[in-house]
Amino acid sequence: MHLSNWLIFCGVTLLVAFTPGPAVLLAVSNSISVGPRRAMISSLGNAVGLFMVSAAAMAGLGVVLTTSASAFMVLKVAGAAYLIYLGIKQWRNRASVFSDLAVPGTPAAPRAAWRLFGNGVTVALTNPKGILFFSALFPQFLTHDAPILGQFAVLTATFAAGSVLSHAFYVLLARMLKKQLSDPRRSKLFNRVSGGAFVLLGLSLLRLPNKAA
Questions:
Q1: In a domain, 85, yes or no
Q2: In a domain, 163, yes or no
Q3: Which terminus has fewer CB within 10 Å in the chain: N or C?
Q4: C-alpha of 29 from chain center
């Protein structure tokens, strides 16, 4: 891979990664409820999920999704259902997730690390946009004078790193705003807005046009 190609891909990666989506929203939600450090566990899970999505794209799943209406529909519905589930769960969250702000040093409600990690992985795996993105974008930056597998590894690692970097930015931003959300009414509003955003993202997946011929 040429250095110029990689630098251009870095720019595209940062643009895409910093555009809010399901993974960013999950990171922000976790930052508010469990703190920035533990929120990054889900971001690392999302990075692992991106590697799995990239591998699936490289194995030809992207082609399957663009040619099989049934396969595309199954993944689309699964992704939408999961995002809607997260939205309903966030919507029903009580304002008490911010109660730790009333007493300095009080830890947030515990949540298993494996669950946070799994949520990040699942968000990455259930978004058909991810597979289609990798399938359509990666070939534009590949060169024929270098091993394809190595180039896919470099591009995927670059994209995953950009994703984690963007999550860290949004997580810290959410942490800064957390004090402003200590009021129960603002907390409830945040839960409703973020939960509604998850649901809207899920519904937007259902509106993806079927790529099959």
A1: no
A2: yes
A3: C
A4: 12
- In angstroms, the CA 207 to CA 199 distance is 13
Question: Is residue 46 in some structural domain?
Answer: yes
pLDDT tens digits along 126-149: 877 677 777 767 767 767 677 777
Both tokens assigned to 29: 């939600």
Domain housing 54:
3-13+21-67+97-182
Distance CA 15, CA 108 (A): 32
pLDDT per residue over 56-68, tens digit each? 877 775 666 666 7
Helices and strands: H and E segment counts in the chain: 9, 0
Crossing angle of helices 113-125 and 22-34, in 10° steps, is: 170
**AA identity, residue 61:** L
In a domain, 208, yes or no: no
Tokens linked to 184: 């129960």
Q: Is the dihedral of CA 142, 147, 149, 152 positive or negative?
A: negative
Length of the chain as a residue count: 213
User: Could you say which DSSP state residue 65 is in?
Assistant: H
* Domain count of the fold of the chain: 1
